[in-house]
Design a protein that fits this description.
NADH dehydrogenase (ubiquinone) activity, 514 residues, single chain, two-stranded antiparallel sheet, CPA3_Na-H_Antiporter_D, 70% helix, mainly alpha
């Protein structure tokens, strides 16, 4: 049994209470342990990803109870890629929170940050639908605490809206789990992959209902139109480091759709045939269009970035909705890109906020550190808009190429290219208003501009932008890896065999014993 696979869940779960109980009033100790924990997560996640790179599926049976009776964690190419991305993102977000002193605006930032990482890591690694629900709830609780960190009526209002929408999703999730368990008697994903395929064609009503409910739940998490209303205000009002970390939160929904609808409800399953193309693809195209229109119409920089997240998730879901190896591979490449780009933009918005009365897209005095901040904004904006030569352009080309042979190829090309043009105009308008027009406007008489943000804040943003450049330079190896990942998802037999045939205290009866 591979014990390291549980470390990404256990480590933040132990650090969080330690920070609360032993270092509650000592910010230096909190920072040291929080950074040390994230660095450890990066090392562990990199090791797990390296182990999974040759196609190895790693299994951890809690208390040595075999599936489907016991709880299992499973590490394959997809899950280890996502936990590595989360760990790396968390490091730069944490560095920014420390450099900008956002972590000092409340006592429990670092503890909540670790609980958030615990929920994200667990969601990516779990091999059981009920425990996916449990980790979703851990995410919800921790993210609400982080969202209202620092106080404020607007932040509290946005946090309540965020919780209400996600509680609706949690309720639907429970209904879906009840329907699945009533039909199959199990919630282990690998076991479900076998049992759902054996259900008689005339007895699939419960499974079809559950599949639709699960898609709705994951669409809420991924902010897919029309279930996206919670995101703009929630992300715009959240503290900048929190919003940057939330860039991976929508990807949890995308991950869940990829995992569940390639393993349990694959495209060839007759009971759920057409669910992807009939419902998910139009919603994805609509999300892409509305997100980028929101970028053009936004009156504040933070809301502009929030709408760009919706648009980028629409792009990801367009690729996922194809449910082909090429489509999933393109989606995974774009997931890495959009997570880094969105996180960088949220942090840059906070750098802009440091020297302006507000983030309104109107001409105001120059921001503190304007030359460096404007350069960073320019780089992040062209990445998010998908302009060459950065990884957003490569990702869009991969998605367009993957959809070229499909029935909706014309719609995909028109919406992707049209939304790209709209996003370019929106980001150009924002950049020129913030950095170019501001140069000719002096600060009001008698006021002193705020000092430039700490160097560590720029280091954190620079690190994310450097990763974007590296994702572009090494696009070949990166795409090769996600291509193999997609191929593994569409050949789930090794995953199922590893989970169900690994012996434990109580193993599944063999076919001869039935």
């Amino acid at each position: 049994m591979m014990h390291w696979i549980i470390a990404p869940v256990i480590l933040p779960a132990l650090l969080a209470p330690f920070i609360v109980l032993a270092a509650r009033y000592h910010f230096v100790i909190q920072r040291v342990f929080s950074i040390a924990g994230v660095l450890s997560l990066i090392a562990i996640s990199a090791g797990l990803a390296w182990q999974a790179s040759d196609g190895t599926v790693t299994l951890y049976q809690l208390s040595d109870w075999a599936a489907p009776f016991g709880i299992v964690l499973v590490g394959d190419r997809l899950s280890t890629l996502m936990i590595l991305l989360t760990s790396v993102l968390a490091l730069f977000v944490l560095l920014y929170a420390i450099g900008s002193n956002w972590d000092k605006r409340g006592w429990h930032f670092h503890a909540l940050f670790q609980f958030q990482l615990m929920g994200i890591m667990g969601a990516f690694l779990t091999g059981d639908l009920f425990n996916l629900f449990v980790f979703f709830e851990v995410l919800l609780i921790a993210s609400y605490g982080l969202m209202i960190h620092g106080g404020g009526n607007m932040r509290l209002r946005a946090g309540v809206q965020y919780v209400l929408f996600n509680l609706i999703g949690s309720t639907l999730f429970l209904f879906a789990l009840g329907a699945i368990y009533a039909q199959t008697g199990t919630l282990n994903m690998a076991d479900l992959a076998q049992r759902v395929a054996l259900i008689d064609a005339g007895d699939t009503v419960g499974i079809r209902v559950a599949a639709v409910l699960l898609l709705m739940v994951f669409a809420i998490k991924a902010a897919v139109v029309p279930l996206h209303f919670w995101l703009p205000s929630s992300y715009a009002e959240a503290p900048a480091p929190v919003a940057a970390l939330f860039a991976i939160m929508t990807k949890v929904g995308a991950y869940a759709i990829i995992r569940v609808y390639t393993l349990i409800f694959p495209p060839e399953l007759a009971a759920t045939a057409g669910l992807h193309s009939v419902w998910l693809m139009p919603a994805a195209l609509l999300s892409l269009a509305i997100g980028m229109i929101g970028v053009l119409a936004a009156q504040k920089l933070d809301r502009l970035v929030a709408f760009s997240v919706i648009g980028s998730m629409g792009m990801v879901m367009v690729a996922i909705a194809m449910f082909t190896p090429a489509g999933i591979a393109a989606a995974l490449y774009y997931i890495v890109h959009s997570t880094l780009a969105a996180a960088a933009l949220f942090l840059i918005a906070d750098l802009v906020r440091a020297g302006r009365p507000s983030l309104a897209l109107t001409a105001m005095p120059s921001v503190s550190g304007a030359p460096l901040t404007s350069a960073m904004f320019f780089l992040a904006a062209i990445a998010m808009a998908g302009l060459p030569p950065l990884s957003g352009f490569i990702g869009k080309l991969l998605i367009l190429d993957a959809g070229f042979e499909g029935n909706m190829a014309v719609w995909i090309w028109v919406v992707v290219l049209g939304s790209s043009l709209i996003s370019i105009v929106g980001f150009s308008r924002a950049g020129s208003t913030l950095f170019w027009k501001a140069k000719s406007i002096p600060h009001p008489e008698g006021t002193i501009p705020e000092p430039a943000p700490a160097a560590l804040s720029y280091v954190a943003v620079g690190g994310l932008l450097t990763l974007l450049v590296a994702h572009t330079v090494f696009a070949g190896p990166a795409y090769s890896y996600v291509e193999r990942t997609a191929a593994q998802l569409f050949e789930p037999e090794p995953y199922v065999a590893t989970v169900l045939e690994t012996p434990g205290k109580l193993s599944k009866p063999s076919k001869e014993e039935h």
